From TrEMBL:
Taxonomic source organism: Virgisporangium aurantiacum
Keyword terms, alphabetized: Hydrolase
Pfam families: RF-1
Gene Ontology MF, one: ribosome binding
Spans annotated as Disordered: 104-141
Entry's Gene Ontology BP terms: rescue of stalled ribosome
Domain of life of the source: Bacteria
Domain Prokaryotic-type class I peptide chain release factors: 11-136
UniProt key word Secreted: no
The keyword Hydrolase is assigned to this record: yes
Biased composition (Low complexity): 104-118
Family label: Belongs to the prokaryotic/mitochondrial release factor family.
Residue spans of biased composition, Basic residues class: 128-141
Protein name: Aminoacyl-tRNA hydrolase
Length: 141
C-alpha cells in the first residue's frame, strides 16, 4: 500500500495519521467462535492534521462538525467478512467524506429579473385560475 491516500488536487492523507481499531462484527464474519476481528474503526484526527492546508482544514471542520469526535473523524466498516475488505471500505468512506467536505461551494447566484413575457404568462395564469374558481361559486341571486 502507498504511504498516502490521495484525495483531490494533490492533497493526500498520510497513512501515519490514521489509527485503526478492530473488533468482532455483529454481521457476517463476527458470529462464530473462531473468527477474526473483522469490524474496522478508522480514526483520523482532522483538527491536528498537517495533511490539509489551513483553508481546506477549516472548511472540512465546519462541514463535518456533526461527525467529529474530539476533532477526529471516525469511520466504521463491517459489511464484509474479511478485515482487509472492511479496511478498504473504511478508507473509501473516509476519502468520500473528506473529498466532499473540502470541495468548494457552489458559485454565487447572480440575481436576475424575470422577462416581460414570463411576467405576462404568470399574470395570465393567475387570471385563468381566478376565473376557474369564480365559476365554482354559487350564483348570486
Amino acid at each position: 500500500m502507498a504511504d498516502e491516500i490521495p484525495l483531490r488536487g494533490g492533497v493526500a492523507i498520510p497513512r501515519s495519521e490514521l489509527s485503526w481499531r478492530f473488533s468482532r462484527s455483529s454481521g457476517p464474519g463476527g458470529q462464530s467462535v473462531n473468527t477474526a476481528d473483522s469490524r474496522v474503526e478508522l480514526r483520523w484526527n482532522l483538527a491536528e492534521s498537517g495533511a490539509l492546508p489551513s483553508v481546506l482544514r477549516t472548511r472540512a471542520l465546519e462541514r463535518l462538525a456533526g461527525r467529529l469526535v474530539d476533532g477526529s473523524l471516525v469511520v466504521f466498516a463491517q459489511e464484509h467478512r474479511e478485515q482487509l475488505r472492511n479496511r478498504r471500505a473504511a478508507e473509501a468512506r473516509l476519502v468520500a467524506l473528506v473529498t466532499a467536505a473540502i470541495a468548494p461551494g457552489p458559485a454565487a447566484r447572480r440575481p436576475t429579473r424575470p422577462s416581460r413575457g414570463a411576467v405576462q404568462r404568470r399574470l395570465d395564469g393567475k387570471r385563468a385560475r381566478a376565473i376557474t374558481k369564480q365559476q365554482r361559486r354559487r350564483p348570486e341571486d
